[in-house]
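re: ur question from yesterday

yeah so i grabbed the chain u mentioned. its 196 aa long if i counted rite. heres the sequnce exactly as i have it in my notes:
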Amino acid sequence: MEVILKAAEGSEGPANLGGGCSMPPLKAFMDDTTIICSKEDETRRMLTRLDDLMSWCRMEFKPKKFRSLSIRRGKVDEATIFTVAEQQIPTVSQEPVKSLGRWYDSSMKDTRRGAETLELASESLLAINKCGLHGKFKIWCLQFMLIPKLLWPLLVYDICSSTVEAIEAKINKYTKNGWGFLRVFQTWQCTAEKQS
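ran it thru and got these structure tokens back, copy pasting raw so excuse formatting
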């Protein structure tokens, strides 16, 4: 696949992103390929070139797994429709797409992702609370299972600090009151003081 991408990359120059920034027109990671062009006709030529190379290799694209996002003057352009293998590519407003752990949709905002992360934290804390484990094992589930699961969206999306503080408050509520973390910590502290 890398050979096909290199052959197609030579047909167009780097994409001009403005402000003196340019980027290669094709970006690939594992089995995901991203086409970045600064003009609509360049994108169409790149798609046609890729389609020709794939048919030459006796392979074919599955357009239903593609997504297109066209931005004009800082806003999502719904009128631009791209095709590959004589089939229409769905836009991200029709079908959002997840790439490298990040969801892309037509809103181009992360506010919805903050609410989803808060909901995930609430549901997960409730599930941990309802399980029949002892308090220190619930803390272990929180530390090694839930917190890493919550950190990825906090790193990938631009989530406001008030949402993060709400998540922290929920975690503190469960750890201090419900799971007996303070009792466990105080017992550990007392035994540590006696040993010294």
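noticed a couple things. The longest helix spans residues 135-156. also The radius of gyration is 24 Å.
anyway ttyl
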